[in-house]
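Closing statement on the magnesium ion sub-project.
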Amino acid sequence: MMAHVWIADIGKHVGEEVTLKGWLYNKRSSKKLVFLQLRDGTGIVQCVVFRPDLGDEIYDICDKMPQETSLSLTGTVSKDDRSEIGYELQVKKVEIAAYPTQEYPITPKEHGVAFLMDYRHLWLRSKRQNAIMRVRHELIMAIRDYFDINGFTNLDAPIFTPNACEGTTNLFEVGYFDTKAYLTQSGQLYMEAGAAALGKVYCFGPTFRAEKSKTRRHLTEFWMIEPEVAFIDLDGDMDLMEDFVCYIVKRVLEKCRRELEILERDVTALEKIKKPFPRLTYDEAYARLKELGSDFEYGTDFGGDDETMLTQSFEVPIMVHRWPREIKAFYMKRDPKDPTKAMGVDMLAPEGYGEIIGGGQREDDYEELLKQIDKEGLPHEPFEWYLDLRRYGTFTHSGFGLGLERTLAWITGIKHVREAIPFPRMMERLSP
Ligand code: 4AD
Ligand code: MG
């Protein structure tokens, strides 16, 4: 029995005899040869079965092997410049582990997205989906490293919550013993408590929104990274998000070249992501939209089309700050220079990907915060603990939330966020 080697490591074994384990991805054959494309999750490699060496029986087995058969192949690794990964396996031994009991539903031909989503558990095996999940992994690592390097403490927020954070219209309610709870929309309020306890904190977990929108940017369950920092104001918050986004894009560019190539992502667009990002007030953004001929109504939130129009003349993300109070969440600090504005900021990605970050400076005045809670008709009781943060040594603080799937969709250049998460949850999809 030869040592099992992962396809990703095959380059370290040139000239050696190794055993690869995996599944048949694709094949082609001629009279004398069968080329088996073996995948093991870490890569795909061409394995050459030479009829005069292995005999007619093995040749026939390989020639007729159905897609997704699981098998082991033992043979010698050789360098091959024509192959995508630079190596091939000259097969000496073929061992079938299991044949599919039915024909594999996803063939190399084109399928509709709804069909592929029904088979998401199998679709993840395909080359493109594999590449997207690898970039997702690298992005998560980069996010954690950024905050770790910069002295943040990871502090996880609860998922069952007693109150709303981002408005009451899209809350998922669940039974909680004799009472009810809501699935968290954001860990922010808890991170504010964390900032007072640990200075610089972040949480990273799933968040839930009962969004009735069927757009390419909406999931009902998505992952959000939420830093919160004591003693920084709105400008400091924008400095942080800009630096953070540059770091994570650079990391993916460094570590995921092959994946971005598989996804046919134009990396030159990503290479341009450098500081500084333009900062526009909401009023400036409004004026710009008008100049561009939009019928956007002052005082409303941007729709997807407005975001696309607004960002199309920029090659880097833009930050829109100082929003009309009425359309932003209760916790945002009132602008001392203009009480009609809230000190919130959204970061909009280029190439039509829209909002990837929402954040801002928090209201640190007890009376003001209470007024906002009342204005939104929110009950006091579940917010008492949050008001304590303003009772006991209130402090300037800011933070933001970056949506992982929207950011991944932008970086990988995929159209819809549903491919940016292993098992998407959307209004019309709860399975597999
Ligand atoms: O702008 P949002 O609602 O901000 C907050 O939740 C703040 N409490 C965060 C904070 O300051 N700590 O959401 C933040 C980001 C959005 O910019 C977007 O990237 C993502 O979360 N997001 C969604 N992603 C996928 N599907 C949805 N339905 C999303 N809703 C928000
Ligand atoms: Mg937002």
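Residues 127-149 form the longest helix (23 residues). With this model delivered, the sub-project is considered complete and its resources will be redirected to Aim 3.
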